[in-house]
From TrEMBL:
Pfam families: EamA (PF00892). This is Drug/metabolite transporter (DMT)-like permease. It comes from the Bacteria. Keywords: Membrane, Transmembrane, Transmembrane helix. It comes from Martelella mangrovi. Residues 8-139, 154-283 form the EamA domain.
Length: 295
């Protein structure tokens, strides 16, 4: 029974990574036609509808009162993270954007040391070194045009800043988490992300071409469905196993990039991505050791 549960958990986890990677590909496609703020707003607006229906039909729990400030804070951070990432992904190859985004766990380890007083240790510093080297290789070669068409400086800055914003969001969620169903929490975070992304989205609004409406609907649906898959997977398997599966996002990014955008990852991007993945594995190993040693 345990084996079957874990197998189903792995299936849900793979589906989550594939679906959420599809969100990135759709964001890149839509980002060519509208601002990243508008893409963020539309993505969260449609996701809110699907998550609200899911909560009403399956979860049947109203959000607990007294946590609106926490929901609002997570919402504004999520909106900022998505806007930065969508801006970066619109101007760079999918694999490059995902590789840079994978530095988020390293930022989380360092921020955890600052916020929670955790001692980083040599493994964390080693992971930081590998992540910096990997990011440096990717940015230097693509930014200069040595490995394919050059990427704009603004897109690179957005791609580097997005994982930092994500790490801040994760730390806030850990420090001020509400005791509620995870999908209900996601619904509230999505609602506030929609609210906070609306002003800039409306200010820079470009009426989407009718031919893009299916992509707008799909990006919101995949965003909601991917999180449902993620919750289902984590309920059936250890989080450490999901962390390993999550690295397959680079494979999915390469697949979507090749199929839909004719992108072929350059070798510096692959080498840099491999160094970043090694950094995440090293950092995760250190985190597990700290948990196991804790009395």
């Amino acid at each position: 029974m345990i084996s079957l549960t874990r197998t189903s958990g792995v299936s849900f986890a793979v589906a989550a990574v594939a679906t959420l990677s599809g969100v990135d590909a759709l964001a890149k496609s839509l980002g060519a036609e509208m601002s990243s703020f508008q893409v963020t707003f539309l993505r969260y607006t449609v996701s809110t509808v699907f998550l609200a229906l899911f909560v009403a039909v399956f979860v049947r729990r109203r959000p607990k009162p007294g946590f609106m400030k926490e929901h609002a804070l997570k919402g504004v951070l999520s909106a900022a993270t998505a806007s930065l990432f969508f801006y970066g992904i619109a101007g760079m190859p999918l694999v490059m954007a995902l590789a840079l985004a994978m530095t988020a766990p390293i930022y989380m380890a360092l921020l955890g040391a600052l916020v929670f007083g955790e001692r980083p240790g040599r493994a964390t510093y080693g992971a930081l070194f590998l992540a910096v080297c990997g990011s440096g290789i990717i940015v230097a070669t693509r930014g200069s045009g040595l490995a394919g068409p050059p990427v704009s400086v603004i897109a690179i800055i957005a791609g580097l800043t997005a994982p930092l914003a994500y790490a801040v969001t994760a730390i806030v969620m850990k420090k001020a988490s509400a005791n509620d169903h995870p999908i209900t929490l996601s619904l509230m975070q999505t609602v506030f992300a929609t609210v906070f992304s609306a002003p800039l989205a409306l200010l820079l609004w470009q009426t989407p071409d009718p031919g893009l409406f299916w992509q707008v609907g799909l990006i919101g649906f995949c965003g909601a469905l991917g999180f449902v898959f993620l919750v289902a997977g984590l309920n059936r398997m250890p989080a450490s196993l999901y962390a390993v599966i999550d690295y397959s996002a680079l494979v999915w990014a390469g697949f979507y990039g090749f199929v839909f955008f004719d992108e072929i990852p350059a070798w510096p991007t692959l080498v840099g991505g491999a160094l970043i993945v090694m950094a995440c594995v090293l950092s995760a190993g250190r985190s597990r050791a700290m948990i196991e040693d804790r009395p």
